[in-house]
Amino acid sequence: MSYNMNTCISFENVSIKYGGFDAVRNLYLDIPKGKVTALIGPSGCGKSTVLRSINRMNDLIVGCTITGRVLYEGIDLYSPEIDPVEVRRMIGMVFQQPNPFPKSIYENIAFGARINGYTGNMDQLVEESLKKAAVWEECKDKLNESGCSLSGGQQQRLCIARTIATQPDVILMDEPCSALDPISTLKIEETMHELKKEYTIIIVTHNMQQAVRVSDMTAFYNAEAKGGGTGKVGYLVEFNDTEKIFNSPKQQATKDYISGRFG
Amino acid sequence: MNTESKPIFKLRKRSDTEKLIDKSFKGLALIMANSVALILFAIFLVIFSGSTESMARYGLQFITTSDWNPVLDNYGAFTAIYGTITTSILSLLIAVPLGVGSAIFITEDFVPIKIRNLVSNLIELLAAIPSVVLGLWAIFIMEPFLRPFFLFLNKFLGWLPIFGSEPIGPGIAPAIIILAIMILPIITSISRDSLNQVPQNLRLAAYGVGATRWTTIFIVILPAAISGIIGGILLALGRAMGETMAVTMIIGNSNNFSWSLLAPGNTISALLANQFGEADGSQVSSLMYAGFILMILTLLVNIFAQWLVKKIRLKY
Ligand SMILES: Nc1ncnc2c1ncn2[C@@H]1O[C@H](COP(=O)(O)OP(=O)(O)OP(=O)(O)O)[C@@H](O)[C@H]1O
Ligand SMILES: [Mg+2]
Q1: What's this model's pTM, rounded to 2 decimal places?
Q2: Which of 3.40.50.300, 3.50.50.60, 3.40.50.1580, 3.40.50.1110 is the CATH number of A3-99+171-258?
Q3: Do B204 and A95 lie within an 8 Å CB cutoff?
């Protein structure tokens, strides 16, 4: 079996710009299938940008351009015949800020499932998804109330449930637990362990312990001042098994970052 | 050096004058807000008291009969009420899809931002044309241009009472078209602003679960902006009901009732504008009564719209 068969997402010399501003430069990265991959790195180094490029959410940002290739199971996601809507149906996303629809909790889950053509029992799907996202207890008595009436952390779990309900192949999570208490965080992490049996998960996190707990692979990202240009440009420092990244990092920058001696 | 007696922050304690200004500003705002309500109430009262004579004489018959005859001193306002309702509702029916559609076009990125801004500015310029100019344009250019279409309607759909008469020039139908043009800018600009207010996060959420652009617009973005859009539609309706000059120039000002939209008709505002100057005695009272009905009509529409907004607005 070739190494490629196990690769889910593969970045080949990807650079991303916002207008004239370089956010990510020359990224090469192979994300394995059926595993949890964590992206860590200081704020503003381009983790969200990289994550958004996987399901073509960057298309919605005016002025954002991407060069290089992002391959999903060998298919170039940015080739002209690829429909971004289909990409997003296969690669779901949980955003950094909770963004439930201002509709009922039930409808929040059902909406995505319906537009993905779900034909099964909707009540059951809603219950299962909410349970997996560890928010069923809080929601079960108010499924008809607005998703926006939940607390911030509950909203985020609702958004996770919404993504799970559409049953994508890959789930992208941008700091999904940054607004959650330790108990819900643990529940979400359990969910991730559960989910990785079927899905590939890519998670951005600022929480080192979380990266250690949930991920199999870790990519450390950093930003450096670019000569001549404005601001900082993000680049990949090191990518390896999580265990190796945290126990025996090869790069000094990685060592500094994970031990909190950064900057 | 004595730094303690000279404080660096001079405004830690607020002076009495500042507090007084605060207080009087509050009072001023209260007076202004209440005077608006007072003026509205006063207008209502004056119109009501002016129309009591006619109300006592005709009662509800005033609304259901269409004989408006100052010579015989006999008044029924059904022609004008029918004209007001049909012109305003049908012009809305034309202008709402057009206006909301343009607003969607302007707020989505179908074309580069420069073209969108151009379209948006052109539509707003439409609002700057004085209504008397639009009225002239309607008489000399628009109506002759649309005449073949009206003839066609009469010929093939003439069995419908609303198209049951031969178009002769001025009429309700051209008034509807000119009203639609006049209210288009209000609907477009208010819809555009409310669509722009919808948080970007919500759009991302919809695209993120795999929604297409159309699903996102119709299931998520429009419902999120709906209260603003309905507010705009209401303003437009108010304008359509009250618009006088352009309507009076093109509608024909006829008090002979006809169901046909192709026939000349009247609206309450046109009726008032045309007759108030020379009216006396019970005619004034009847005109007041018609004005009172116009006020009630707008009130009812407002209540209905508030109810509608509550029904279909997304829950935050
Ligand atoms: N929509 C945008 N338009 C312009 N520049 C942007 C946009 N989004 C991000 N950037 C820029 O790209 C760079 C990377 O941003 P990104 O959001 O990917 O960082 P991040 O690693 O996710 O940071 P954080 O950990 O704080 O979320 C930043 O310098 C930011 O200013
Ligand atoms: Mg981020």
Answers
A1: 0.84
A2: 3.40.50.300
A3: yes
